Amino acid sequence: MGIQTIDEKAFKNCKKLQYLYLNSNRITEIHENAFVEYLELLRLYLMMNQISELSANVFRNLQKLTYLGLHANKFSDLPQNIFYSLYNLKTLNLESNQLKTPRVEWFLSLENLQILWLNSNQIEELPRNIFIPLKNLNSLFLYFNKLKVIHSDPFRGLLNLKSVELYNNQIEAIDERFIDNTGVQSLTAFNNFCVNQAIFDYITSRMTMRLALQNCFKNFDNLLPARISKLEKADVEFNTKIQTIQNENQQLITTTNQLQVKLNNITAENIKIRSEMQNITKGNEAIRTDVANLNTRVDTISRDQSTLKNEVKNQTLIITSLIHDNKNQSSVIRDQGLIIAEIQDENQQLKEGAVKLQDQIEAQGTVIEELDSFVENQGSKITELQDNLEELKYLVYELSNRPCACKKIILISLK
User: Fold this and answer.
1) Which of 15, 33, 172, 359 is a Cys-bridge partner for 8, taking CB atoms 3.0 to 4.6 Å apart?
2) Domain limits at 375?
3) With the C-alpha atoms ordered 368, 374, 375, 377, is the resulting torsion angle positive or negative?
4) Ramachandran region of residue 402, left (φ > 0), alpha (ψ -120 to 50) or beta?
5) 195, 197, 203, 207 alpha-carbon torsion, rounded to 10°
6) In the chain, how many domains are there?
7) Residue 17's domain is classified under what CATH number?
8) d(C-alpha 114, C-alpha 302), whole Å
9) CA–CA gap between residue 177 and residue 157 (Å, rounded)
């Protein structure tokens, strides 16, 4: 069945947890305090679930988090400040959801973000200042969305941005200043409607760009050698939307070091052939798209494998440390066992002494009973003596009142 709900106390005894894998379940709900105690968490995997909503406070205590995977869920929107506390986040993956318009507020605190995945959503427009806070952004993935226009404002000041992937959108125009505002070295924009050819005017000498612009240009008339001579490699092959190709464009082959432009001489004789090859061309386009997607996935898997290797190393170190600790604990337990055995021996001796003492107490009790009996007998005798003494006193008193009798008695006594 898989996990469906993460409640407040789901992992209450894991405060030092650094890696948490909750991907590939059926999670639909996460309590806003589910992660509140995980102050050491570095990587959180929540992808491939069925989550459609999250509380704005759910990640508030994860200041050390460097990776957050939320892809392949059902998000159509996210709270404005949901990532506000993730100051150290380096990778954020939001691909394969249902997002339409990303919020500027999502990225206000993500100055250390390096990789951002927004591909495979339903994004139609990028807000003007959307990426400006991301000063350290290196790679941006926006392919398989519904973008129509790429303005330069969202990318202003992103000097660390090296790679942008815009392929398989509905782009009709790209602001030519878009590249000039960034450090982009790789732009992938194939399978779009049109790319402004003036974009080549803003390629500076410091750039060694690779362009992938298959199926983009409607017209090559203005694609002059001066515009693209600075490119390391430009891939514009399989442009099925080419309407006119002039003979002077053959000069591109000799003026560009690694320019690979495959131009067909469109003549009356090959128009018929071209129409017959159209279906094959479309098939090739689909294959190219699939290959590009596979390459992207391979790159993702490679990065994940590298991450997993590092995690395995870390876990190995942790296990080694635990084994060492267990050995120490075993030694301590053995010592404690010896101490317990000694205490048990002492307790046994104390028990035996207590039994002997009890016997002595019982014997003393018997003696005390005998003494009590003796005292009682002596008391009876004392009582008798007291009675005799009283009688004697009375007799003396009587005798003292009878002198004659006393004399007789005295005489008798003298005799």
Assistant:
1) 33
2) 362-414
3) positive
4) beta
5) 50
6) 2
7) 3.80.10.10
8) 17
9) 12
Radius of gyration of the chain (CA): 49
The token pair at 130 is: 């959307």
CA–CA distance, 221 with 330 (Å, rounded to integer): 81
Q: With bands split at pLDDT 50, 70 and 90, how would you rate the model's confidence at 327? A: confident
- pLDDT per residue over 68-87, tens digit each? 999 999 999 999 999 999 99
Structural tokens at position 312 = 């395995």
Task: Please indicate, yes or no, if residue 343 is contained in any of the structural domains.
Answer: no
> Is there a contact between 217 and 195 (Cβ–Cβ < 8 Å)?
yes
Residue entry with tokens 């390629």: 203
3-state secondary structure of 279: helix
Place of tokens 């494998």: 305
List Cβ neighbours of 102 (8 Å cut-off, separation of 6 or more).
118, 123, 126, 127, 130
pLDDT per residue as tens digits for the range 195-224? 556 555 555 544 545 555 555 654 444 444
Which of these three, 269, 304, 339, is where a domain ends?
304
Cα–Cα distance, 179 to 41 (Å, whole number) = 36
Dist CA 410 CA 415 (whole Å): 9
